[in-house]
Request: fold
Amino acid sequence: MPEARKKDNPVRIDMTLHPLDKSGRVTLKQGQRDLLGNEVVLTYGPRTSMRMFATDDFETYKADIIAGWGSNLMDPDWDQVTRQLIDCKFACKIDAQGRLRIPANFLDRSGLADKKDAEVEIIHREQMGYFEIWPRGQVGIPEDPDDPFYRARRLLSDRLREQKAASAGEGRTNA
Reply:
């Protein structure tokens, strides 16, 4: 685990602005690299964003989603959840200059492909264990209920609420 990620040595990074070069590379700040290590996993995020995880943090995120869904992995909604939250991923290495090359399909989805002077905002979501990468100026746009990522998150959230309610009901006894 990179030194900066240890709980007794917290690093706080807020939103930072980064230019995107014509090759689709973004140079990460040293503090971000300290938290991520040399390899990251990029996934889709809401709307035009991407999520960036340290490899171990992605595995924890994935395990939490699977555990949160429960045992019915044949549920057709599970396909939508996994496709949006887990399966659309890409493992990337951070080069010696601290640059991360964003894959073309991620650039296309975020509207950054072939865009001159593109910039991204990177936000550390410390409690969630990942960074978000947004095209400049799009962070504050409200959620879109038609966004497939948002729908998948909503399905998972509803499933977790149902499980919690069922657990609370099991704990009651008839007097």
Q: What stands out?
A: Residues 3-158 form a domain with the Chemotaxis protein chec fold (CATH 3.40.1550.20). Confidence is low (pLDDT under 50) at residues 1-7. Helices lie at 30-36, 55-69, 76-87, 104-110, 148-170. The chain has one domain: 3-158.
